[in-house]
Amino acid sequence: MNQFTVNEKGYYGEFGGAYVPEILHKCVEDLQQAYLDIMESDSFQQEFQALLRDYVGRPSPLYLSKQLSERHGCKIYLKREDLNHTGAHKINNAIGQVLIARRMGKTRIIAETGAGQHGVATATVCALMQMPCTVYMGKTDVERQFPNVKKMEMLGATVVPVTSGNMTLKDATNEAIRDWCSHPEDTHYVIGSTIGPHPYPDMVARLQSVISKEIKKQLTEKEERDFPDYLFACVGGGSNAAGTIYEYLDNENVKIVLAEAGGKGIDSGYSAATIQLGKIGVLHGCKTLIMQTEDGQIVEPYSVSAGLDYPGIGPIHAHLAKQQRARVLAITDDEALKAAFNLTRNEGIIPALESAHALAALDKVEFSSSDIVVLTLSGRGDKDMDTYLKYMD
Ligand SMILES: Cc1ncc(COP(=O)(O)O)c(C=O)c1O
């Protein structure tokens, strides 16, 4: 435990906690009581590690990008979560949570999804473990991430398009919470990011920490030291970023750079730059930074990238930003799209639009020639082909 990990009350500094309706108290409390014992048990670890290795294909490679290294004048490694089964980091968390849910006697799984990656990951694990699965997805996202909707249906999940608000991730999360309130006994809600009431942010960060555990090992083999000078990751709710930095939180040699969605520019009224624009409030069960009006109404977020289109942020990242442990950069749609095409044309890797925000952030930092940088490529771009094709026209 260190000053950046969760305390026993579920807080990171002033952020976090568990603010849930009365009807959910018992199941959130049951989860708080159970999650660490389950996750630290040998039987869980054996099953989880075996699936990460043989089903997901871990460890994911740490790839030295020649092109990015030359361009930025230092060594840049990509942590290839895009090569995981189902195409993103989300599967690490989905496997872990469904295993925990099974051990707690839950028989039904629900999830929210933005880009569809978490929905596909959860539907995949439910097919593997033969559990019924319902995924809530905003109608806007159903349209812009259509291939993922069809994948979830093929996997046997029920996809419910949500038509409230601006029909994106926040609205899907509201609907999933409503479902959970109606079925608290038998249902586990697999939250896809480091958001929600305690213990979700901590549980998801721990499940994703496999990313930084592998980086340590892989850097030791390649560079004979286990830490980089910089870690880069994009932040929606914050799970790939939390997994990337988890093992390095108290290593002051490692600088953390997080890329959030600047949309059409942070002053344009069309962005999801929550850390830059947010004020403290409660959303989806935790106290964190939220994009809101003077009188506390949620400001509808906007990003070209469905997975970053969220008005809140994981409490761990709100805390890291406030403590200046992490530097947070807002990346515009255009900057992300350019970075995605640059990686595609020069490295032969089509990144997810979310990950492209982290790539674009490289342009905003001055490196020295001895610097070693690790950037987590959180997912692959297959789901974003429609957006990329429109940009090419
Ligand atoms: C590929 C990819 N990267 C990043 C994200 C953002 O989520 P998080 O901040 O939890 O990693 C998403 C969300 O859907 C995603 O699909």
Overall 3D shape: globular
Order of helices and strands: EEHHEHEHEHEHHEHEHHEHEHEEHEHHEH
CATH topology of the largest domain, which one?
A: Rossmann fold
Global structural class: alpha/beta
CATH class of the largest domain: Alpha Beta
Number of domains: 2
Overall pLDDT score: 97
Major sheet summary line: 6 strands, mixed
Provide the list of bound ligands, each named once. pyridoxal-5'-phosphate
Number of helices: 16
What's the N-to-C terminus distance? 50 Å
Q: Any idea what the radius of gyration is?
A: 19 Å
Helix content: 40-55%
Biggest sheet: strand arrangement: 3-4-14-9-10-13
| Percent in strands | 15-25%
Summarize the structure.
Helices cover 43% and strands 18% of the residues. The protein is an alpha/beta fold.
Question: What this model shows, in words?
Answer:
The protein is globular, with a radius of gyration of 19 Å. The strands form 4 sheets. Strands 3-4-14-9-10-13 form a 6-stranded mixed sheet, sandwiched between helices. It has 393 residues and is α/β, with parallel strands linked by helices. The model has no long low-confidence stretch (mean pLDDT 97). The protein has 2 domains: 146 residues, 3-Layer(aba) Sandwich (Rossmann fold); 214 residues, 3-Layer(aba) Sandwich (Rossmann fold), CATH 3.40.50. The chain contains 16 helices and 14 strands. Helix 9 packs across helix 11 and helix 10 packs across helix 11. Pyridoxal-5'-phosphate (PLP) binds next to helix 5, helix 11 and helix 15.
